[in-house]
Amino acid sequence: MTRPERPLVAATVPLREAAIALGGNPRHAYELVRDGRFPVRTIRVGSRIVVAKADLYALLGVPTTRRLGAEADLPQLGADEHGARE
Questions:
Q1: What is d(CA 70, CA 8) in angstroms, rounded to the nearest whole number?
Q2: Domain membership flag for residue 46
């Protein structure tokens, strides 16, 4: 039996993109990570540093869907309280 195919949804973003999303300078972000002062949890993957999207969205106050799968990563912008699009 094989696993059903699902779209791959990245759970992380590069530190550079997270820094830009937070309105900061990517170079300064690396210094903050080194000093343990970056405002969200960072993850080292080999020589790369990434940030969990869930942590970044939480800091930014962006609501996310609770369903698993491809849409779990997408902010629910423009949805009413029942999840319907306006």
A1: 7
A2: yes
E strand spans, the chain: 12-14, 42-45, 48-52
Token pair 């949805």 is at which residue?
79
Q: How far apart are CA 28 and CA 85, in angstroms?
A: 38
User: How many domains does the structure of the chain reveal?
Assistant: 1
Single-letter amino acid code for the residue at 76: Q
In contact, 7 and 70? CB cutoff 8 Å:
yes
Q: Which domain holds residue 39?
A: 12-66
> What are the 10-residue block averages of pLDDT along the chain, 86 residues in total?
64 95 95 96 95 93 66 50 49
Please answer whether residues 73 and 10 qualify as being in contact, where contact means their C-beta atoms are separated by less than 8 angstroms: yes
